[in-house]
Every structure is written in C-alpha cells, then in structure tokens.
Amino acid sequence: MKRLLCLGDSITDCNHLFSPSPYGDGYVRLLADELGADADLQVLNRGIDGFTVQRLLDHSDEYLACNADVITILIGINDIGVMMNTNRTKLQQQTLLAEFCEKYKCLLSRLASQQTSIVLMGPFIFPWPAFYQHWIPHTEAMSDLIKELADCFQLPFLPLQKRFQKELERHSVSELTTDGIHLTPLGHQLLAGWLLPLLKPR
Question: What are the backbone dihedrals phi and psi of residue 200, each rounded to the nearest 5 degrees, phi first?
C-alpha cells in the first residue's frame, strides 16, 4: 500500500487527534477525500499544533518508519512567531532564519535518504490583524530559502504566501483565514487544490 505522509504544524494538524476523522478537518482531509478512489493509498496526518522545524527534525525517525511514498511539508510560521514575539534584534532574527534553513536542510537530507518523493510548501501569513503585516517580509524571506532548498534537492515547491496574496484580490481576508494564520474551509480548499497536482511520485 502506498502512503502519503503530511507533516506540519496546526495548519496541517486541524484537530486530527481529537476528530472522528484521522485526517482532521483541513486540507489533509480534502486530499484524502479526493484521493480516496485509490484504495491502495493510505493518507497519514502527522501535523502537530505548535511544531517548528526543530520538532520535525526531532521526530524524523518516526517519519522514516512510516515508509511513505510521498511526503508533504508545511512548516515555518511558528519559527517566525519565535522570531517576532521574543524581542529579538534584527541580527538575531537573521540568525534564527539561517538556523531554520540549516535544520530544514538536515530534515530533507534525512527524509530523502529513502528516495521518497517530497513536496515542500512555503509558510504564509495574512495582513490581518494589522500587526501581522510586519511578519510578511520574514515569511517571504523564509519562503525564498525553502525554494532554494527545493531547487537543491530537486523537489516541487508551492509558494503559498504568493498564492494567498493573489487570492486576496478575489476574496476578503475573513473568507480565507480565521485569525491571520489558520485557514477557513475555503482556504483549506484552495491549498488542497494547489497541492494535488504535485502529489505524484518522482
């Protein structure tokens, strides 16, 4: 049986540990619904509320044990939260961003050792509440670093900050996010739709 393993933080988690559905109530459930016609596919939601890239790296042995054929990774917004909510200087923020990149690279090196197909997604933030506008440059910088890692490892990359910013031309912020970070049902629907075409093993 083939396995799709979805890694991330609360955006991926979506209460999957406390829901009747093992997929939660977000984009992972939508992926499972869409791919459900394939009886030979098992979808695993391993997103955990509050996770950072370090926590993913800490659990990498567990992820390797899943023997997944395809892995998706959506991580980073909690790392940015640490940068922005802990009174760090600009130099300290830059150091944390560089450390994020190194840890992400270590994670990919570990996961890629099984020749698994991996899809990377960039973090995103909405400009609401207004103070999140100050997070956007850091989110874009982190997304650029993840894109560089994707190119280095020859992996697909989904730039969610740019995609959601584009959607704000058609939808109000409240239609896409509940609090500036987490997604509404429409937001999850859009994310799943962008991700599905990339879930083909190399």
Answer: -115, 125
Q: What is the CA radius of gyration of the chain?
A: 16
Terminal alpha carbon distance of the chain: 17
**Residue 126 CB partners (closer than 8 Å, separation 6+):** 132, 164, 168, 173, 176, 177, 180, 181
**Mind listing the pLDDT tens digit for each residue in 132-189?**
999 999 999 999 999 999 999 999 999 999 999 999 999 999 999 999 999 999 999 9
Q: Give the separation between CA 10 and CA 78, rounded to whole angstroms.
A: 9
Of 18, 11, 141, 159, the C-alpha closest to 78 is 11
Q: Give residues with Cβ within 8 angstroms of 86, minimum separation 6.
A: none
